[in-house]
Amino acid sequence: MQLLKLTHNCLNFDFIGTSTDESSDDLCTVQIPTSWRSAFLDSSTLQLFFDLYHSIPPSFSPLVLSCLVQIASVRRSLFNNAERAKFLSHLVDGVKRILENPQSLSDPNNYHEFCRLLARLKSNYQLGELVKVENYPEVIRLIANFTVTSLQHWEFAPNSVHYLLSLWQRLAASVPYVKATEPHMLETYTPEVTKAYITSRLESVHIILRDGLEDPLDDTGLVQQQLDQLSTIGRCEYEKTCALLVQLFDQSAQTFQELLQSATASPMDIAVQEGRLTWLVYIIGAVIGGRVSFASTDEQDAMDGELVCRVLQLMNLTDSRLAQAGNEKLELAMLSFFEQFRKIYIGDQVQKSSKLYRRLSEVLGLNDETMVLSVFIGKIITNLKYWGRCEPITSKTLQLLNDLSIGYPFLSVRKLVKLSAVQFMLNNHTSEHFSFLGINNQSNLTDMRCRTTFYTALGRLLMVDLGEDEDQYEQFMLPLTAAFEAVAQMFSTNTFNEQEAKRTLVGLVRDLRGIAFAFNAKTSFMMLFEWMSQRLQFDVSSPNGILLFRETSKMITTYGNRILTLGEVPKDQVYALKLKGISICFSMLKAALSGSYVNFGVFRLYGDDALDNALQTFIKLLLSIPHSDLLDYPKLSQSYYSLLEVLTQDHMNFIASLEPHVIMYILSSISEGLTALDTMVCTGCCSCLDHIVTYLFKQLSRSTKKRTTPLTQESDRFLHIMQQHPEMIQQMLSTVLNIIIFEDCRNQWSMSRPLLGLILLNEKYFSDLRNSIVNSQPPEKQQAMHLCFENLMEGIERNLLTKNRDRFTQNLSAFRREVNDSMKNSTYGVNSNDMMS
């Protein structure tokens, strides 16, 4: 057992530092060292593991299969073509033997690992290579039978089924590209896999309802993942898939209609048919979404038309009953279908002469895209009317509306705006017509997010024909104007209900956020700004930017002071209650400071403390956050470091004026961010460090020259702090240099920019660090490493002018290549902490 674990760990070792994501392990390639090549060329190595699987106790065999999964994933470049074909042949023979003796696969762990092994056959080898294996016809038959049996046992190991479907998805996707003369036989077996999936899901409905089992449809993520895979499998031999779906759909739809018309029908029978139709609608949407334009024919488009007609007819039936009853899962399936239909058949790139549109015209009288769009909008309004209190349906319905609104100035969006139903929404977006816009004290505040989506979509649709029509804009904003006045009236009295006021305000802000997101053109945004500020139009000398920043500053200061009064917050709630709001404040301040619409010098000139208040609030909020949290929460770290980048670039005098402990906190956060896994954070830290180092170098250069203008108090104090704590800058120099030399540096250019300044500020320390790195190498490599450092500084002057920086960046690229060549087969490094002692 210990030997197996050791072998497994060796095969799982990250030989080149790629750190593969476990969630996508079916794409993994094992980068076996070339020195191991002989072991993999020896067929007895592979045979040993297959023999072990069949001979050791079932409790150990999953580990054997896991080793085989890794062996099957060795990099292709380890073999030449003939060797790879021989290796694959032995691998397929071993798989065939397991399939012929499947007794041990009744163990869930064995079953799971074997499914992973099957998936690797296609993720690491091409279909053209597989069909050339001698036993391919028999093996593909056995795999198909195994897959069909697995799918029929739908209640067993759904996570393992993912790998089987992944195998067939990849096989089906390869069919158009295979050039081998040997038959792949997928036209025989993919329809069997498709049929097994569809029929097993339909048959599961009655059992789940009868026995009260967990419904797979409740796990929408898993269902969507499987449907994405089925969309490709089902498109292989599409005629058979379509014929099967039409047959099953017609049977269930007819039975469903008869049950609805029967006075004696039991609720269980109706629920069974609704469940079956839910699966069928999901699957029809998936196979339509699997259409590939260059590989589709008129006949396949006509088949899509048959399926679409049936779903739309079912929708008409279910919508007519919504006043009495509805099925949430079936409605979600309908929305999934509409989303796939939209992606494939709605838009300017779609040929409207498609046979799908002809079939829609013949059966449903939908003669063109405008009429089809009216069906979409009709469904959206119906859902918002009857399902306004059901958050999953409301949010997905609004997402569909949002997706339809994207695409201006394309013709399809213009067609959409001209529909009477869309005009109705633009003129009647009130809680009277759309219940989700009302105040529901029973719902979560997070459910109000859908209001932002709604108003983003409406805003886009309004902009299509808005132009500079202020009257039309004012008409559109009437419901929000009324909401503003209601909030003002509510807060003017002391008798308002706190929860109702909170929900009203949150809803209004979410609505405005959606509109602001949509109004991204100057004319429309100015209309929104003027509406919010209740001011007349300004001319070229408009103070709007300053006014907007003052309000932003008030908001940040008020919210920040409130957050700082929070006591101890439980760790599991700290992000929701504290850090999320702080992150948003940081993002707001960053947007305001970098938006180029405010002359910040005006504030100090006229004694306005709006800028100072916002910056001081930022510092207070920052100091309330532990260092570890800055990097533990990705959204917080991105908003913080992007704000800090702006501050160090444009407001370095403010940074220099801070108290020593604040400056050390900021520098420590930059030092830790340099080693962050998030490239965006790391790059931001490099930029911050570059700005700080450049500022330091300039101030230090000025202090050593005879000038009539002395250093400012802030600059002088900042220099003094840095001179008292040289270890911080030295630590960052060591970190950057170690990353460039010893790690997979993905942002080398960004790293190079602060490095020159760090070296010039710490020349003696850099010399010691260089000697330490050289001495850490084997004796025979020390001279080469010393030469690399000499070449790094060749031609570099003692300044930070752009020309000098660019030359250093070029030198650094050559330095890194030379160091990598010098250090091949060497594992020596330098511990930066040793240099700090």
UniProtKB/TrEMBL annotation:
UniProt GO BP: protein export from nucleus
UniProt xrefs under Gene3D superfamilies: Leucine-rich Repeat Variant (1.25.10.10)
Domain Exportin-7/Ran-binding protein 17 TPR repeats: 205-443
GO molecular function, one term: nuclear export signal receptor activity
Subcellular location: Cytoplasm; Nucleus
Family the UniProt entry places it in: Belongs to the exportin family.
Protein name per UniProt: Exportin-7
Organism: Chelonia mydas
